[in-house]
Specification:
Length: 208
């Protein structure tokens, strides 16, 4: 698997972009639980977080339909990264405003669920791209790379997120800002190599 990543630059860039994006999602999911524990009704807030975190999974079928209907899946992935950057950039501003805890909590839930939905959609959009940039005999290895990345993020993402949040002394303003930067970096990885991706995708279409 590591050999495939070393030799296939496009797969490496796609995997790196996904890793950064999934890391940002994992970071904020744990931060959301920490924030919920600090609200006036921590038990209710925690239940809301758990329900909100399951919504993207429930809506997976609809996300797959949208991703499948997109003609330019790379563009879709880039746009969603930019939207996620804007969402968490907006949340950064909201953390600086004085407002009711539950009103702010509602905004946080909305932004986090929206971001997770976008993450699910781009994960599905990445699958057809992999088929185009990886030789057919290496597709199984490429899928294994993707699964390994997701498993790695699930294992270390929340641990690092909690550690980072503690380091920031539970300052959600800076944590949200850092998250926005992560999504921006994830998008930039794809933007920088977009021309190479498009060349590969065009060759595939011509050959078909």
């Amino acid at each position: 698997m590591m050999l495939l990543l070393r030799t296939n630059k496009l797969l490496r860039n796609l995997t790196l972009s996904q890793f950064i994006e999934l890391l940002g999602a994992a970071f904020f999911n744990i931060a959301l639980l920490v924030y919920a524990s600090q609200t006036s009704n921590a038990k209710l807030a925690t239940i809301v977080v758990v329900i909100a975190n399951t919504l993207p999974t429930i809506l997976q079928i609809g996300l797959g339909y949208i991703a499948d209907k997109s003609h330019d899946k790379l563009r879709l992935m880039i746009l969603t990264r930019l939207v996620q950057t804007i969402l968490y950039g907006t949340l950064t501003i909201l953390f600086e405003l004085t407002m009711n805890n539950w009103l702010l909590f509602s905004f946080i839930i909305f932004i986090n669920v929206s971001s997770d939905l976008l993450s699910g959609m781009t994960s599905l959009a990445a699958l057809p791209i992999i088929k185009h940039i990886v030789p057919s005999q290496d597709l199984l290895a490429a899928r294994s790379v993707q699964v390994s990345v997701m498993s790695l993020v699930n294992v270390i993402g929340q641990v690092i997120g909690v550690t980072f949040l503690i380091f920031l002394n539970n300052n959600f303003f800076y944590f949200s800002l850092f998250n926005a930067v992560l999504f921006l970096m994830s998008g930039l990885v794809l933007i920088v190599s977009r021309q190479q991706f498009n060349q590969k995708l065009r060759v595939f279409i011509i050959n078909c």
